[in-house]
Specification:
Radius of gyration of chain A: 37 Å
Number of strands of chain B: 0
Number of helices of chain B: 4
Order of helices and strands of chain B: HHHH
Structural class of chain B: mainly alpha
Strand order of the largest sheet of chain A: 3-2-1-4-9-6-10-8
Shape of chain B: elongated
Largest sheet of chain A: 8 strands, mixed
Largest interface: A-B, 23 and 22 residues
Oligomer: heterodimer
Shape of chain A: elongated
Largest sheet of chain B: none
Number of strands of chain A: 24
Radius of gyration of chain B: 29 Å
Helix content of chain A: 40-55%
Helix content of chain B: over 70%
Strand content of chain B: under 5%
Distance between the termini of chain B: 88 Å
């Protein structure tokens, strides 16, 4: 490797400059550039007197740690550019060490070495330097490489750069810590960094206690600006740290044979040093909160960062560097699918769709008690299991909603809250072992399911058109994307089946939501009231159109103030312009009792039809729903459900008609009971099982045969 | 090989695949049942967030276990003595 240039920014550095330049001559540096920014001592004279040293003088206001080093790199030509500070003297073998660092790997963009203490360096600094740099070497004390994700530390007290890497990254024009910022950028762009113990310099900032503190103020202000680091400060914690650091300093002195008197003298100094460091580093991290004058006085370099002065043309802002913080996020699977595509499916086997028993894996998001969508899923899975299929549940929980619930607990919840289930429950896919059909069940489960291997087919139990749950957003677009990956959809209504088939080109079947007739049935022991409206007012679910429902009930109350209104389905009573009774979230038997007592049910859905109106009908309670959405696909335009447009007045009028017209009420009540009598979970399971077999059949090379006739839609 | 032979061979192979598939399902059922049984058994440990393997790795766990074993050894010894004395009387 040829061509080594050394750049030394200088200001009033006469104390060590001669020694430094002599060391460079000894090491054989080809090109040395001293950039002086207004020294008032003999620095320029010393530099000019040295052989082979070029001196560049700049105005003090032109100096910037990053800016001036970029200038130095531009004014030199070596393939390697070394930066030293004016008080860093290379030890013998320094340049050889630098070259050796770059020879470790052609991707090494920077090499740095340790800062050794001088004779008069305080033990606090000497110990800190020793401890700090020891951490970068291998256990044997050999050179070590750092990659992306490793500690980005770099120090321009003693660092060298490959010109190609510097040209690509360059130093940021920041007031401080330009080297740290470069270290981060270097690793982030794929370069490596090498620490070489042999590339050492003698260096120490030999300040008094107060000067040290002001320097820490500057350093931590720079760190905040370049890396965003804010030094924490807790008084008790700081005291503990000061005590521990002072004890370590004294131990270090004792190990080096310092007499007791000297140790006692350093104990006081060390306490002040570490205490001051804690306070001034915390202040430096929060410098922007201090008045400009205070800031200037606390800074060793008397920097105020331009907080005062006239408003002029702004420079391009330099953003704070933020390290990678999340190892995974909720879009990671979607990104993998978009980048790499789905995992390949197993080769199809002849007749696999007709096998009596299938291995079925259901992928679900975490649930809560009372979750309607999960109730549907587990009612189906429970019955599929009873039919001999080998079923398992796999939970996708990227948001950590079920972090505190371990698999056995989640498994028990299925049985206690939804339906009996004998299979296992897995969180995540570490134990994934394949399936005949993997079933995605919600938009957030589709991309993870697409990445699972060892499957013969993929199906998608679609409870609702989930893109409509979101405003224009990433979630909305990802939810739309889930219908486009070839999963065979088994949708929870004919309306939903047609929607995913026509809008997204998905192959789809439909199933009808079942009703638990053991719970939801007319009860002779409960007297039916003639004045009660029950409304599913779950205002936390936007698709329930609760504002419109409440306006309709306000209109009804205006017309008939004596009508009793009962709201349920939410634990937070909504604010209304009319009085009402609030019933929170009710259990299934409580709901059945409420439906048996009430006169008219109101349940609105702006997307797919839900189970609740069916359960009301099963109890003989006529129900009002929205027209023009999905209900017609199940009940027809004038079936047991009374349909009304999304209009408060029209909804109120429809409810009022049912209250006023006993014949109409009776007709709809009877029709509702008859209609939903055939809507059972067993029938729903038949339909879903047919859909799963359809998913398998679609993969068979012989082509699709459709035992379910025209209910199957394959575009 | 005649067409008939070929057809018979295909049918035989299909039947064999079917049998192997059925075997796979049965095997999967046993495996899933074993996991489910284990989950049923560890319900309260999971409910209380107790990972006994991790717990027994902690300092003092082995000593605690040795102490429990010692106490059990003493109790068993006492029971044995009691039984012997009861029988003797």
């Amino acid at each position: 490797m040829s061509g080594v240039s050394v750049v030394i920014p200088v200001k009033d550095g006469e104390r060590y400059l001669g020694e430094l330049l002599a060391a460079l001559a000894r090491e054989g540096a080809e090109e040395v550039l001293v950039i002086d920014s207004g020294s008032s001592d003999r620095s320029v004279e010393i530099a000019r007197a040295a052989d082979g040293v070029t001196v560049l003088e700049i105005e003090p206001h032109e100096f910037g740690h990053g800016r001036t080093r970029n200038l130095g790199a531009e004014r030199t030509s070596g393939e390697l550019i070394c930066f030293l500070t004016q008080d860093a003297t290379p030890v013998p073998g320094w340049l050889e060490g630098v070259r050796a660092g770059f020879a470790l790997d052609e991707r090494v963009g920077a090499v740095f070495g340790p800062h050794l203490p001088r004779e008069d360096t305080s033990p606090m600094i000497a110990r800190e330097l020793e401890r700090h740099f020891d951490g970068f070497a291998t256990d044997d004390g050999d050179p070590a490489l750092q990659r992306a994700g490793d500690e980005p530390f770099l120090s321009n007290v003693n660092a060298a750069y490959r010109r190609e890497a510097w040209e690509q990254i360059r130093f940021r024009d920041v007031p401080y810590s330009e080297d740290q910022a470069f270290g981060r950028d270097l690793l982030a762009t794929g370069w490596l960094k090498a620490y070489v113990p042999a590339a050492a310099v003698l260096h120490a900032h030999d300040y008094g206690a107060l000067e040290f503190m002001r320097r820490y103020f500057d350093e931590y202000r720079g760190l905040r600006a370049t890396t965003g680091h804010v030094e924490a400060f807790h008084p008790l914690g700081a005291l503990r740290t000061v005590r521990a650091e002072t004890a370590a300093d004294l131990r270090w002195l004792r190990e080096r044979g310092a007499p007791a008197g000297e140790r006692a003298r350093w104990a006081a100094r060390a306490t002040v040093h570490h205490g001051g460091r804690r306070v001034f580093s915390a202040l430096g991290s929060r410098a922007e909160r201090l008045p400009a004058g205070v800031r200037e006085r606390l800074s060793l370099e008397r920097r105020d960062d331009g907080a005062s002065g006239p408003m002029g043309a702004a420079e391009a802002p330099i953003g704070r560097a933020i390290s990678a913080q999340r190892s995974d996020d909720r879009y990671a699977e979607a990104a993998r699918v978009l980048r790499d595509g789905p995992a390949p499916l197993l080769a199809p086997l002849p007749g696999m769709a007709e096998r009596k028993r299938l291995r079925l894996a259901m992928v679900v998001p975490p649930w809560r008690r009372g979750s309607g969508g999960h109730n549907t899923l587990f009612q189906l899975l429970s019955r599929l299991e009873q039919r001999g299929h080998v079923c398992s549940v796999w939970i996708v929980d990227e948001q950590g909603e079920a972090d505190d619930r371990w698999p056995s607990v989640l498994r028990r919840e299925i049985g206690e809250w939804f339906a009996p289930f004998d299979g296992p429950v897995y969180k995540g896919f570490a134990d994934w072992h394949g399936a005949d059909v993997v079933m995605a069940t919600g938009w957030q489960t589709v991309h993870p399911a697409l990445l699972l291997d060892g499957c013969r087919a993929r199906a998608y139990i679609v409870n609702d058109h989930e893109p409509e749950f979101f405003p224009t957003s990433t979630e909305e677009r990802l939810a739309e994307d889930t219908y486009r990956h070839g999963l065979h959809c088994v949708a929870a209504s004919p309306w939903l089946r047609d929607l995913v088939a026509e809008r997204y080109g998905a192959s789809a079947d439909a199933f009808q939501l079942g009703v638990d007739h053991a719970i939801y049935a007319p009860r002779a022991d409960l007297a039916r009231r003639r004045d009660t409206i029950v409304y599913y007012a779950r205002h936390s679910t936007d698709r329930r159109a609760v504002p419109v429902g409440l306006l309709a009930l306000a209109e009804l109350h205006r017309r008939r103030p004596e009508t009793r209104i009962v709201l349920f389905g939410t634990d937070r009573p909504p604010r209304t312009s009319f009085p009402y009774e609030h019933c929170d979230v009710l259990s299934a038997p409580q709901l059945a009792a409420l439906y048996n007592e009430a006169t008219v049910g109101l349940c609105l859905s702006l997307t797919n039809f839900s189970l609740m109106p069916k359960e009301m009908l099963a109890c003989g309670l006529p129900c009002v729903e929205l027209e023009g959405v999905s209900a017609e696909s199940i009940f027809g335009a004038d079936g047991p459900l009374a349909l009304a447009p999304l209009d408060p007045v029209a909804l109120a009028t429809t409810i009022e008609r049912l209250l006023d017209d006993p014949a109409e009420w009776e007709r709809r009540s009877r029709a509702g009971i008859e209609f939903v009598a055939s809507h059972t979970w067993d029938v729903a399971t038949d339909e879903v099982e047919a859909g799963l077999r359809h998913a398998l059949r679609e993969r068979e090379p012989t082509g699709v045969t459709s035992p379910a006739g025209d209910r199957l839609r394959s575009p | 090989m005649t067409d008939t032979d070929q057809q018979a061979e295909i049918e035989r192979l299909r039947a064999r695949v079917g049998a192997l598939e059925a075997e796979l399902v049965a095997q999967a059922e046993r495996a899933e049942r074993a996991v489910a049984t284990a989950q049923e058994r560890t319900y309260w440990l999971d409910r209380w967030h107790l990972d006994l393997n991790a717990l027994m790795q902690r300092p003092g766990a082995a000593e605690f276990r040795a102490m429990v074993r010692g106490v059990r050894w003493v109790l068993r010894g006492m029971k044995k003595v009691k039984r012997t004395l009861t029988r003797a009387s």
